[in-house]
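Quick question, first post here. What does this chain look like in 3D?
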Amino acid sequence: MERSDCYYDFIATGQHDASHEEDLPGGGYLQILGRETGLKGIEVFGGVYKADGSRAAEEHFVDVETDTLDAAIDLMKARLSAHTDGK
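> Answer (accepted):
Ran it through. Tokens below.
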């Protein structure tokens, strides 16, 4: 899978606490990883990949302003939804 620096920045700082993975129409793939950081902070990474493994989109946010890790994952899923149709 083709990854960008934002993926490597996310994994360089530790393991994730929660994830959401989904197969997309046309053979694509959605991956969202999240973790709680110090002082109740939330960090989240999301990526959409095409059937050939190439990157359609990736985003990484530190200090996401949500109350829970699940809410941060849902927020990332919504942000990436424009890239998930038919990938």
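The chain has two helices and four strands.
Strands lie at 18-23, 29-37, 41-49, 55-61.
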